[in-house]
């Protein structure tokens, strides 16, 4: 709970302090109720003072508990909102290579499941704090009524708590393992959803995927969950029964006490059964949230701190890559792929085609050119000025790209520009898409379209960005022959005429004549850089 509380206090000290105080006061109210019940049972006659104390304590207990729970839910949602936005900003500030290393699914799991687990545990905080104070209050009163019984009960509980701490080690380790297995299961379930078409076309393969890939991962999660939670159920219930054991010891084994002497103490202990078991039952959820918080904090530390939005770097004349190299940390089948050293110049008003076989390094070079990968060796210069670590984010803003694995956002860029929608409608009409899609409130009316159609809309977004450098990775590959011709013979010359620098990754050798230069890559090296023909 310490971790949870410190996160809440860091995020909103005032709100967290108020919630904790309300929880404490609510717990104190419950403790006073217990004491009043015990006093009333001991008293010879009914007392008005005790009645007033009882109903006041009850009102304080219930109203402050509701208040603290509501405050904490609000606080948790505020913390969650800040966390979500901070992580989203950090994610965009983090280099692509690092994001690829972390992996899409772990990122998604942290941003969804772990966040929910954190919020779920925050809601337990008032219950826990209130109950802990109630337990303390009742003990204080017990000590005042009969210190011997209190000492005996306290000793038993101390032994119980130490045993609990020891017994909890295994379930905690299992909760950590469970979290890792959930990551693996989600990766496989995601592949099931994304590859459903292929698996539906091949039933034996689908059955094999479920039985041999999803099955073992799901069974592993189920095993670890049952292992962790049943160990907890044992530990929690043994902890609870310890309470009854203590009552038994006090009732039957403590010498020199009559039943009447023991009545207040036994009553208090019975009263404490519920809060103690509530505290115990919350522990697994708290442990899970601690694991979730660790993941969230780890991710936050792995991502780069969000920087202020950089303005686009102006490109007056050209971009030059000199001796640029890059290699992937993970080996592919044929060893570590190394691109470069690459020397390449891209001028404004020039259309360059980048060609080469599959795996020759075209996309990797494009990622380096637009600053999404940092060059390991060599450097990039804009109009003779080197691009540094500090200016890389600004350099990236000079590019507009449609990647082969592009994502089509519903929201169009430039929503602050009042003329954006009109521009978008005109571009959509130019790209022969007006019969399929409209623009409303800065958004496309649909993105449920064919791949070629969605690529045309991605081009609309790229045009709206109106950057000095354009990059298309096999854009025309999904277009019909008519529109392919429009792309090479109308759209690219238009961009050239507007002074844009354009890099087109393509396999369409029939259109190589549309390029000012054709740069050919093989095994990560430029083998030819010649005028288009
Ligand atoms: N994320 C990655 N992790 C590790 N290695 C990678 C990764 N992406 C690419 N590679 C390696 O880099 C090499 C070049 O890949 P790249 O995507 O740049 O080729 P390409 O020329 O664009 O291929 P294609 O024409 O098939 O799109 C590949 O052979 C592969 O071994």
From TrEMBL:
Stored PANTHER family: ATP-BINDING CASSETTE SUB-FAMILY B, ATP-BINDING CASSETTE SUB-FAMILY B MEMBER 6
Protein name per the record: Cyclic peptide export ABC transporter
CC terms in the record's Gene Ontology section: plasma membrane
NCBIfam families: cyc_pep_trnsptr (TIGR01194)
Superkingdom of source: Bacteria
Subcellular locations according to the entry: Cell membrane
Spans traversing the lipid bilayer: 12-36, 118-143, 149-167, 231-253
GO biological process, one term: peptide transport
One of the record's GO molecular function terms: ATP binding
Gene3D superfamilies recorded: ABC transporter type 1, transmembrane domain (1.20.1560.10), P-loop containing nucleotide triphosphate hydrolases (3.40.50.300)
Membrane topology of this protein: Multi-pass membrane protein
Domain ABC transporter: 319-533
């Amino acid at each position: 709970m310490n971790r949870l509380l410190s996160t809440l206090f860091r995020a909103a000290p005032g709100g967290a302090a108020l919630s904790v105080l309300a929880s404490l006061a609510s717990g104190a109210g419950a403790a006073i109720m217990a004491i009043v019940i015990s006093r009333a049972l001991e008293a010879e006659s009914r007392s008005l003072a005790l009645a007033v104390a009882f109903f006041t304590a009850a009102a304080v207990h219930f109203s402050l508990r509701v208040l603290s729970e509501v405050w904490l839910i609000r606080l948790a949602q505020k913390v969650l909102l800040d966390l979500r936005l901070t992580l989203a900003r950090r994610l965009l500030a983090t280099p692509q290579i690092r994001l690829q290393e972390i992996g899409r699914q772990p990122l998604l799991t942290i941003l969804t499941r772990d966040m929910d687990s954190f919020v779920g545990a925050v809601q337990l905080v008032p219950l826990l704090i209130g109950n802990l104070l109630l337990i303390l209050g009742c003990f204080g009163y017990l000590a005042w009524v009969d210190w011997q019984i209190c000492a005996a009960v306290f000793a038993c509980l101390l032994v119980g708590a130490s045993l609990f701490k020891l017994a909890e080690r295994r379930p905690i380790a299992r909760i950590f393992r469970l979290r890792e297995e959930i990551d693996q299961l989600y990766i496989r379930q995601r592949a099931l959803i994304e590859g459903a078409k292929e698996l539906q076309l091949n039933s034996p393969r689908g059955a094999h995927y479920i039985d041999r890939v999803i099955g073992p991962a799901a069974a592993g999660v189920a095993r670890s969950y049952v292992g962790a939670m049943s160990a907890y159920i044992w530990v929690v219930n043994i902890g609870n029964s310890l309470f009854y054991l203590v009552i038994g010891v006090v009732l039957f084994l403590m010498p020199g006490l009559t039943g009447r002497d023991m009545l207040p103490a036994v009553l208090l202990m019975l009263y404490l059964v519920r809060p103690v078991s509530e505290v115990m039952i919350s522990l697994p959820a708290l442990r899970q949230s601690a694991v979730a918080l660790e993941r969230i904090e780890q991710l936050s530390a792995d991502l780069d701190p969000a920087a202020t939005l950089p303005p686009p770097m102006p490109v007056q004349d050209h971009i030059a890559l000199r001796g640029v190299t890059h290699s992937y940390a993970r080996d592919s089948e044929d060893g570590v792929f190394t691109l470069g050293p690459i020397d390449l110049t891209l001028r404004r008003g020039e259309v360059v085609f980048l060609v080469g076989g599959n795996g020759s390094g075209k996309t990797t070079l494009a990622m380096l050119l637009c600053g999404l990968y940092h060059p390991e060796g060599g450097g990039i210069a804009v109009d003779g000025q080197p691009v540094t670590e500090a200016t890389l984010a600004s350099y990236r803003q000079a590019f507009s790209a449609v990647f082969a694995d592009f994502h089509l956002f519903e929201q169009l860029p430039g929503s602050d520009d009042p003329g954006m929608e009109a521009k978008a409608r005109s571009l959509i009409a130019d790209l022969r898409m007006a019969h399929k899609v409209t623009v409303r409130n800065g958004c496309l009316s649909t993105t449920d379209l064919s791949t070629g159609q969605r690529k045309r809309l991605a081009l609309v977004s790229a045009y709206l960005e109106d950057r000095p450098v354009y990059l298309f990775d096999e854009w025309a590959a999904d277009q019909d022959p008519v529109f392919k011709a429009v792309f090479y013979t109308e759209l690219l010359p238009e961009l050239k005429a507007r002074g844009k620098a354009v890099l087109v990754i393509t396999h369409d050798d029939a259109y190589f004549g549309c390029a000012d230069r054709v740069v050919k890559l093989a095994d990560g090296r430029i083998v030819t850089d010649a005028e288009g023909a």
